Each structure stands twice: as C-alpha cells, then as structure tokens.
Amino acid sequence: MSGSVSYHAGLAAEDSVARHYGDTGRAVVARRWRGKGGEIDVIARDGDDTIFVEVKKSGSHGAAALRLGQRQVRRLMDCAGEYMGTLPGGLLSPVRFDVALVDGSGRIEIIENAIAC
Question: Which partner for 35 in 16, 21, 82, 104 could form a disulfide, CB atoms 3.0-4.6 Å apart?
C-alpha cells in the first residue's frame, strides 16, 4: 500500500472505530489528540472512565495486532499521562487502554484493557 493510501485507510479506520464507540454509548471526547510525544487515535468516556484507544488497521485482525510495538505503547502511555493531567482527578483518574483492530473488510475487534499500566 502506498503511503497516501495507507494514511487514508488509517483515517477511515479511526473514523469507524470512533463511530463504534459512539454507537455503543460511549462519548468520544477527542480524536487524534496530539500531545508532546505523539498522538492518541481516539479518546472516549464510559461513565467516569476515560478510554484511550489505539487503532490498528491491516488485512486481518491478527496482522493488525502485530503492528503495535513497544515504542508505540510507551508513546501512548506518555500521551495518556499528559492528557490525564487535564482531567479533574489528574493521574489518579480511572482509565483503560483499548486496542481497536480493523481488518481489510472494515470489521472491528475491540480488545478492552489491552495495555496494562
């Protein structure tokens, strides 16, 4: 896949995942939130919990899962910490880290609490 096609496929996957969270009763509060160290694809709220979502797209859910590396996990944690500083409870706020896998057909698989902190 060329860079431009891959970029746009990733944006479409993020759009689908954001819609999925909204459709399941979770409020999407930010998309492509930029921190000093990078970006969080989707941030949603489920009651008092803040959900940080990393979206991965590939031909299959398995291949998408393999695209999440340790460096990205560290970046996500750093950005989440920065975002949590804006919440009323700060770093003590209840959060979870989900990974949303999107396959070539657009099917979404959400792995809740996929990344433990």
Answer: 82
d(CA 105, CA 108): 9
The answer to whether 93 and 50 have CB atoms below 8 angstroms apart is yes
Contact 17, 102 (CB under 8 A): yes
| Pair of tokens at residue 108 | 């979404």
**Any domain includes 106:** yes
| Residue 116 covered by a domain | no
Tally of domains in the chain? 1
pLDDT band at 1 (very low <50, low <70, confident <90, very high): low
Residue 30 lies in a domain: yes
CA distances from 68 to 27, 77, 93 (A): 25, 13, 25
Residue 117 lies in a domain: no
Which residues neighbour 11 within 8 Å (Cβ) at sequence distance 6 or greater?
none
Nearest-angstrom CA–CA distance, 74 and 33: 16
pLDDT (tens digit, 9 = 90+) per residue, 97-110? 999 999 999 999 99
